[in-house]
Batch of 2 targets.
Target 1
Amino acid sequence: MTTTASLTSAGPPSPTNEQRRPRRAATPLGIWRTLLRSPTTRVGVVILSIHLLVALISPWIAPYSATALDPANLYGAPSWGHPFGADQYGRDVLTRVMLGGRLALMISLSASLLAVLVGGLLGIWLGYVGGLLDEVVMRLVDATLALPGLLLLLTIITVFGGGWRVILGSLGLLYVQRIIRIVRAATLDVVPRDFITAARARGERATTIVWRELLPNVRDLLLVEFAIRASWSVVAVSGLAFLGFGVPPTTPDWGLMIAENRQALAYAPWCTLYPVLAISSLVIGFNLAIDGVAKALGLDRMHGAPQ
Amino acid sequence: MIQLILRRLVGAVITLWFISLLVFTLTEILPGDVATALLGREATPTELTSLRAELGLERPAYVRYGEWLSGALRGDLGLSLARETPILPLVLIRLRNTALLAAVTVLFSVPLALALGMLAGLLRDRLPDLLISVFTLIGMSLPDYVVGVLLILGISVRLAWLPAVTLVAPDAPLWQFLPNVILPALTMTVGLVAYLVRLLRTNIIDVMTSDYVQMATLKGVPYRRIVLHHALPNALLPALNAITLLIAGLLGGAVIAETLFNYPGLGRLMITAVSERDLPLVQALALVGAAIYISVNLATDLLTLRLNPRLRTQQNL
């Protein structure tokens, strides 16, 4: 394959299949090594680690209180005392940027974990067992997928009141349907294989087959799904805050900070630009890491449907 | 073929009916109803009872569902609570504005994505591909509101080329939106192009390394012809699905971009409806959104069927 391609002068060099889909390293350590071999993935992992670290320890290292007002320093420009400047109430922007990712990260990681656990198990079960339950649940999933997701989210949040529990629950609910669909399809690919037939012939119970035969086969997919949902929900949670839904108005949150301060873009851009940098770098880190993980596991990230 | 189309049509109608049932049930389950929304928190129980009697809310749910559904079929989606006007004209005018936004977005993004995606896929791992990869990574990672804010800062504030806020009435003639539609459209273009370029690049690389392209190369087919006649159609077909799904998403309401630029489309109407707890309007928007999604999906499937002869014989489609 490679030699034929390099003979043709007009075409670009064609890779071998091995280059396109790296062989899967079987152990977690092996995957980790494959992962870190790529420099872009390393950058992604470093960015993500920094963000997680800051989110974890920021309450102890933030220089000021996130809600301390300073009437003498409204829209204060960046200075030694306030390296990122101050916002419309004189609150320290550096402090608020450091604290601003905590809620979004916490909600998005837990919502994605919830969705992957519930959706993954349900998807495998439906794909394996099939029957009337499968029919009914998939109808329901298809119908809810057609509804505008954000409208659903906003309605739930308005009716049940904001707060992180409601946001977490509704985001998880929104993602569960998509994960059920993807995992069920992947399971349907595995079910006809010989080792499943063998397990059935051995008289294994359905739960055993789901846990020991099917789950390990869709595990990689679940891992990548988890990472993709997590990066999306960071954007979604901050987007909700940006729209004024969800988090209370004094919470330090990047989306909310951008929404509050964008009127002052012309004369106090630092209030908006630092939260912009923070969320953008976090999502870039996520995407670099996801690309790396997907590649190390031999999965194609672009095969999922767009959000 | 005709049978297949008919079956898809019937399927779409059934799904839509099921969705109407779902939307109605969900709004029934939610705490509070039209009466509590109208009277607010201070309402006394007697006031609530008399208003419910007046609006016919005490009748069984299935009667009200039947009424709502038959109304919706005749194009009567009821009255908006907050505005006390019929919902359908309200939604239609917003849908028109959002459609303009979606059209301009597609006009910006699809040609750009096609060009960049082909370039990246054909010049794989060379300098243009690497540059495009950096662009798509950033474009995919920036949330809509970040792109919008940066556009406002650059184009509205610094350069003062385009207005940051739409001050046109929602029902103004369409051409009056023309300067205002550009920035929200650009906002969505960035993410869309990034996503599509990645998809196209992957597809093109897959096709260009496939056996039949190797075969064509060995036969001595010129490179141009391989790309245009062999690779491109096969790389585009899977992308078509993604493009139309994205269009369905755009039509369903570009909430962030519309809010940021105060553009009077469906997305902003959603925000207003939810904030004002205008239940009938929320129901109508959910139904309209689902109808758009289903019809765009149906159209895509039929188009794919038309373009890909191999699928026509498969019964399970």
Target 2
Amino acid sequence: MSEAARQIALWLIPGAPAAACVLIALTGVRWLRERSHYPCILALCVSLGSSLGVLLLGIPDIAGLGPDGSHPQVSAAGYEWIRVGGLDVSIRLTADAMGAIMVTMVTLVSLLVAIYSVGYMRGDPGYARFFAEFSLFVFSMSMLVLASNFLVLFVFWEGVGLCSYLLIGFWYRRPSAAAAARKAFLVNRIGDFGFLLGVFLIWGTFGTLDYQGVLGREGVLQQIAQQHPGRLEWICGLLFLGAVGKSAQFPLHVWLPDAMEGPSPVSALIHAATMVTAGVYMVARCTPLFVQAPFVQLIVAGIGGFTALLAALIALTQYDLKRVLAYSTVSQLGYMFLALGCAAGGKEVVTLAVTAAIFHLFTHAFFKALLFLSAGSVMHSMGDVIDMRRFSGLRGVLPVTHLTFLCGALALAGFPLTSGFWSKDEILAAVAAASHGTSLYAKSFLVLQFTAVVTALLTAFYTFRAYFVTFWGEARFPAEAGQHPHESPPVMSVPLVILALFALAVGAAIGPSGLFGPYLAQTRGLTGGEEHVVAWMPMLLGTAAAVIGIAAAWLAYVGSPGLSGRLARVSTTAYNWSLNKFYWDEIFAALVVRPLQGVAWLCRVLDDYLVDFLVNAAGRIPWMVGSLLRPVQNGQVQTYALVMMIGLAALLLAVLNAWAGG
Amino acid sequence: MSELHNYLLVGAVLFALGAIGFVTRRNLIMMTLSAELMLQGVSLNLVAFSYLHGNHQGQAFAVFIVAVAACEAGVALALFVALYQRRKTLDIRAWRELGEEGLVSGTGGEEPPIAPVLPAALESPRLTPAGRVPDISKRRADNRV
């Protein structure tokens, strides 16, 4: 692959969806209409092809060459955006190993979800709008991944946030969808505010915003760590705050479950596979920065572990199938952060930790997208009912969906040899390695290791609870489903089958075979050469957790169906806490929303009574002055004539007087 | 000299009568006539002074004024016809849209009502029809919308 070909391929990745977005936005409503998906799918094929080109040809071609050969990256200049004083921000696409893996995953999942959407969104009045926003999202996401500069990263970070907002509120006539979109946007603002502060601090500290300038010079980093103790900790902490918002970690996790108001393909693509993992990607990308701040990494691990456990506990009792999956997404993202935080265990764990996190991100994207799309398929045939209490025994009616959901559930539970198993095992191995690390914080990871195993157990349980409740038992359908619920059309089931194959096999294909680790290790900040670690102890623990969880779910929901109800009655308090999501929404309402509403009310009163009074008073003065002269204008011609005559007489008198006097 | 005095006196009386008439009458035509009266008073002054000085410019002016007054009267009367067709009255008080609303009238006293329209007055004179009769029923329907 020549240099020119590499650059063109790199630009095509975001360029094609951007062009599709413009085309659909301009002509979709009037002309393309039900053909609106063609430009989108074509553009995604182009993007996927280019991504694969960069991943498989572009980067290996230049690996080992040049002065910085161990960190190969494909780079394509765009244009100079801002150049003021020392600030030099240019839009420049850069794909290193991590970026190439990420962008390939993004475009592949996007393509499959787009094909699925053709069936799922058929007949929707907003068909063209859906595909325009979808293309815009893929554009923003690939720009986010390929950015080579913190400011550009931030711009597209907001860009994906905007697309998320638009697509959550896709059915904006539904009040719940509009409220969910607003909630997602506002909660993300908190994280983004922290992220922006972090970017400012980077600018203040390093004098540049380029990845190369910030992350690429280890000497500078160490110098700064010595000169300004605490500065790097602040930067990392603020960046992590941004990741907490975007990736729905505690305490900003509340928006993601509500985001399920959007169409199912959106939940699959944005709120499971790609956008929410942007936080993980960003933290992994900033590894050289984070290794200088082990304490922040410990916080990352702590928050990740806590979120994983919390979300898993909530997911145990939810009745809404998509919400179960949403909480499992939160939980799995927590798992990834836990893995990233393991780098605090010592310098020797860094590569293992980041590899584990990105590997889990990669496999998770496939099986979670698969689960969401399968849930969407269930919704499709059940007449948009998603409450698990209202249907069961769908095995017979939805054979394909049943099998694909099973594949996704096995992968999510970490059943041996599925892709989730390999990546989860690697995370457990990373946590175990961190607990034996040389760092000061190594001992803390013993607790986190325990958390991780418990979470794995809970994950297997709630995933299979959803599976058994939905697909097993007697066949029951809600009234909305009509007389004969039917399987989804091939345009929806084929992407499901492809994703199911990925969910089962991709982990085994690239993880233990040693393709993923060494390739990713070419990324800056990681030290290369490590093979896939096979740690028997964590693998055994993970497998045991998965199998016990699945068996428990079978026992509780199929083996002796009354058991779950009895359990719920025995532990009413715990059950209610979990069902009500540990009351986080209520706590936020009391601590944040209510006080802010009070402030807003105060502002309104001030505005209505003080500001408006002053403004009206200012307007009143000319009015009063005018009222002195107003009677003159009474509309009576005679009055006007009289006034004119009197005036004329007065003038004459004055002139004659002046002459006589002169 | 006394001869001139008489001329000026007649001119002043004409002007004053015109002014009083203009201010007190409400009928548009009467107001126009009063205005004409004022104009003629002024013309008489011009002619008188012209005669005194033996200068014919003043006479010429007077002729001009008569001509202009004729034109002006023609335009004014045409306007009155148009206004009459709108409101079916010649009372000046029917048109006071430019005034401020809600003001008491200048006299302060009880205002007499605007002159009622005589049924006979509704039948304004019309021209003898010539050529094709315009189809006004359709246009009326349009206007109503």
